[in-house]
Write a structure and sequence with these properties.
With 494 residues, the protein is an alpha/beta fold. It has 15 helices and 23 strands. The protein has a seven-stranded mixed sheet, with helices on both faces.
């Protein structure tokens, strides 16, 4: 089946006539669909449509905008299983996880629709008589939304829904590896009653992202992806002083102290390290373990990892799916060789799975390196695959120092029964997200999501913090005294 772009309320083919295939990473013989290889002209058309729609959409009362989004949330909920199966086919993670991805889009859409009646500002007492002072949020304009393949419905909802409830219009470029989930999401918005031009979708096309980050009619760029690409997006947008939101990489740490409940810690490291085949920006790719429990933890962790069932995510017995692409699998294989070369001890995994049921997909064994030094590349660089590095430590202070000694600062976790250690770690780890007795994954939609250092540029997604990306503050003063009153000057006369 061939899927088109969505521009100005109409599903249209690319101007250039180019298309690309989307195939199941678990079975390359399974063609998911054919999608538009968009051109810069397609992107320009979408931006123009969004710019035309903005003046009327911004004047729709926010509660009315929200009613449309409530309808969209209900439609996603009604089609959750269908959307989850489509997502598993196109990006590989197991069905249980894709159901969670769709559920997150449902939760975010309901949550942000609720903000349509809560776009709160402030009212404050003026320092002058007969004068009223307040602040309000105002929309910004056309928002370019560029999203990754690992959460192809959840992450678009984090960006598009707050942009819409604030009164902006959107041009959406999804990852080329997961266009069907984007089409499903936009079709729901269309059916819910979002007016033509308010949301536009362009798929594929190497140059589309550059147009979205440089076009003069785009006011906001929200990007989730690699740090290298995020840096380019930031550079492209900087000359026009566009508002830019970047959510990029992570090299997250789980710290396991000597008083930890080891079985729970193993559970968390399995889920954090190998959930989504390790293809999460919040994946627990580093585990720092106190020397007193190091050997016991490794024995249990390796045993449980070897028992993981790897295969097609549509099979309910499978616990870990494929890498999303041949290129991503090659990256994983390269880092396994880097780890070997650095002297890390390979305890399990390390090989591509390419026989039998794995022959037509991009499968890799879940892999554990032990005796990893904190400065090794496998402990410093984001791999985005099922590879976990285990590091030994002697104290809480050393674990925190190791945790902080990477260029990223997204998520961190500690397993301990000592409340003092837990609070010390949550204070001293310089990350945007922190967990106690849980893995580094599992964020909820009503709190800010994002990180520090090379993970982002200071903005946050989710929660009410997302509204700050897609709105600007306006302070308003109403003087009803009937005479000139000069702030900070005439107050002494009162």
């Amino acid at each position: 089946m061939t899927f088109n772009n969505y521009i100005d309320g109409t599903w249209v083919p690319s101007r250039g006539g180019q298309t690309f295939e989307n195939r199941n990473p678990a079975d390359q013989q399974d063609l998911v669909g054919t999608f538009q290889g968009s051109t810069p002209d397609d992107a320009a058309d979408a931006i123009a449509a969004a710019a035309r729609a903005y003046p009327s959409w911004r004047l729709v009362p926010a509660p009315k905008r929200a009613e449309t989004l409530f309808r969209a949330a209900a439609l996603i909920a009604a089609r959750k299983e269908e959307f989850a199966r489509d997502m598993t086919r196109e990006m590989g993670k197991v069905l249980e996880e894709t159901r969670g991805d769709v559920q997150e889009a449902i939760d975010m859409t309901y949550f942000m629709a609720g903000e349509g009646r809560r776009l709160y500002g402030q009212t404050v007492p003026s320092e002058l008589r007969n004068k009223f002072a307040m602040s309000v949020r105002q929309p910004i304009g056309v928002c370019a939304v560029i999203t990754p393949w690992n959460f192809p419905m959840a992450i678009p909802s984090w960006k598009i829904i707050p942009a819409l409830v604030c009164g902006n219009t959107v041009v959406f470029k999804p990852a080329t590896l997961t266009p069907l989930s984007a089409v499903n999401f936009v079709k729901v918005l269309e059916e819910a009653g979002v007016p033509p031009g308010v949301v536009n979708l362009v798929t594929g096309g190497a140059d589309v992202g550059t147009v979205l980050s440089t076009h003069p009619d785009v006011s906001v760029v929200s990007f989730t992806g690699s740090t290298a690409v995020g840096r380019l997006v930031n550079q492209h947008a900087a000359s026009a002083f566009k508002k830019v939101h970047l959510e990029m990489g992570g090299k997250n740490v789980v710290m396991i102290m000597d008083d930890a409940q080891l079985e729970l810690a193993v559970d968390g490291c399995l889920w954090g390290g190998f959930g989504t085949t390790g293809q999460r920006c919040t994946a627990a790719s580093r585990v720092v373990v106190h020397e007193r429990v190091y050997d016991a933890f490794l024995e249990a962790f390796v045993e449980r990892t070897r028992a993981l069932r790897v295969g097609n995510g549509l099979d309910p017995a499978v616990q870990m799916g494929p890498s999303v692409s041949e290129a991503q699998l090659a990256t994983v294989q390269r880092y396994v060789e880097i780890g070997r070369g650095e002297g890390a001890r390979l305890l399990t995994g390390g090989r591509r799975l390419c026989e039998g049921a794995h022959a037509r997909g991009f499968f890799h064994e879940p892999t554990i390196f032990a005796d990893v030094q904190p400065t090794m590349r496998v402990a410093q660089e984001e791999i985005f695959g099922p590879v976990v590095s285990v590091v030994r430590c002697r104290s809480l202070e050393e674990a925190i120092a190791i945790g902080n000694n990477v260029s990223y600062g997204l998520s961190a976790s500690i397993y301990t029964r000592d409340v003092n250690a837990a609070f010390t770690a949550m204070r001293d780890l310089y990350t945007g997200i922190f967990y106690v007795n849980a893995p580094t994954i599992g964020a909820e939609v009503h709190l800010p999501f994002g990180g520090t250092k090379a993970t982002g540029n200071g903005h946050r997604e989710a929660g009410t913090a997302a509204l700050d990306v897609f709105s600007e503050w306006k302070s308003i003063y109403v003087d009803f005294s009937g005479r000139l009153q000069r702030a900070q000057i005439d107050t002494e006369d009162l």
